[in-house]
Amino acid sequence: MYKRKLTTPSPVEPITLSEIKTHLRISHNAEDTYLEGLIMAACEYCERVQGRAYVQQTWSQWFDAIPILFPLKPTPFLSLDSIVATYNDDTTEDITSYYGVNVDGFLYQKDVPSLTKELPKEDGIKVVYTVGYEPDDSGESTDYIVNIPASVKHVIKIAVSHWYAHREPVVQGQSVNKVPETLDALLWLDRDVQV
């Protein structure tokens, strides 16, 4: 069994407040906080549909036993930061060198770790890894969103636009407003399917 947790969230959202205000043709600042919330919600929605992380983030995953081949989700994979075994006596051992990650983001065992003690029964192996589209740090500051596909950014804008225009799912006397099927159609083109 395993469990996974986001340990370091993305430092920025894939779409800036300025971009969404331009997209919506909004010139006032009265709803900036509301729009920022919509951007976050749209990004979370899109990431879940695609099984991806758009902006660099760090995840921790715990295993009860030593994994031999296991997918690290979400994708795209950037780096394997550490794998640590914790023993019953609470001592730890770094076993990162025994593992690698293939191009599909699967953690695999290169060598059998020669563990010095018996692992605890629950969550004895902790894997820490970084995912997201590759940031560009060649300038004065890191550009985290430069390599996010334009189609993803557009879908986030569509979702924010729809939710901004339709703040409630039901309006008296009208039918239910659903997020346009366009969103799912665009997102499903490049989703990461669990195999």
Q: Structural class from helices and strands? A: alpha+beta
Number of strands: 8
- The arrangement of helices and strands along the chain is EHHEEEEEEEHH
The percentage helix is: 25-40%
* Average of pLDDT: 86
| Strand order in the sheet with the most strands | 1-2-8-4-5
User: In terms of per-residue confidence, which ranges show pLDDT below 50 for 5 or more consecutive residues?
Assistant: none
Morphology: elongated
Residues in β-strands, percent: 15-25%
Instruction: Give the C-alpha Rg.
Output: 21 Å
Biggest sheet overview: 5 strands, antiparallel
Count of helix runs: 4
Query: For the terminal residues, how far apart are their CA atoms?
Result: 17 Å
Helix-strand layout with pairing:
Elements: E1 2-8, H1 17-24, H2 32-50, E2 57-63, E3 69-71, E4 77-86, E5 92-94, E6 99-101, E7 106-109, E8 125-131, H3 150-165, H4 181-188
Antiparallel strand pairs: 1-2, 2-8, 3-7, 4-5, 4-8, 6-7
Helix pairs in contact: 2-3, 3-4
Report on this structure:
This protein has a five-stranded antiparallel beta sheet, with no helix packed on it. It has a three-stranded antiparallel beta sheet with strand order 3-7-6, with no helix packed on it. It is α+β, with helices and mostly antiparallel strands. The chain is built from four helices and eight strands.
Summed up:
The protein is of the alpha+beta class and 195 residues long.
